[in-house]
Every structure is written in structure tokens, then in C-alpha cells.
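Appendix B, Record 12. Input sequence as logged:
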Amino acid sequence: MNTIHKAKLLQKRRWRIRKKVTGTAIRPRLSIKFSAKNIYAQAINDDAGTTIVFLSSLDAELRKQKLKANIAGAKVLGAAFAEKAKAAGLTTVVFDRSGARYHGKVKVFADAAREAGLVF
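Logged structural output:
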């Protein structure tokens, strides 16, 4: 398969998930994205179109730990995101895996966020 075809399939998966998963002010959508080097996570209120909480492996405190987009980095970032979300007053979210399969890095991130206190 060429890369253009794979990108189109990924976009179709994202659209299919986004039809079913929407965030509100009370229960925002937790969207994660794993690039080749970094991890990005944000809690989004789709009703207002705003981001409530954002955290990535490029954050100043997390950059010192030299996190990578692997399982170990996902675990640390998941726990850190949950702490930041709780500080912003969020307790429940809807999980959006952004077209990625729910295993490996994605599952570890979700489990770490759940252990740190987020409910989804």
C-alpha cells in the first residue's frame, strides 16, 4: 500500500469515530495523537469549539524527561494529563483515539489516565 492510500484510510477512520464521539463542556473529548517523535493530548469542548486542556511531550517539564512516542512516554504523559485535567476541574471525558487502534501506546495512555483519576 502506498502512503497516500494509508492516509486516506486513516482519515476515514477518524471521521467514522468522530461521528459517534463528541465532547461537551461537562464531558469533553480527550483526543490523542502520536507522531513519530511526540505525543499530543487535548480535552476539547466540541459545542463551543474550544480546547480546555492541552498537554504534549514538548511541554517544558516533560521535555526534561526526554519522553518519546512509545509506551513509556505514553504512560507518563497519560498520568500528567489526568493531573492537569483534574486541576482544570475535569473528572470525566470521552476518549477519542484519532483512528489509532486501541492497543499498545494508546491503551497504556488511557490506562495511565484512568489510574490518575480520569473517568471514561
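The two ends are 35 Å apart (CA to CA).
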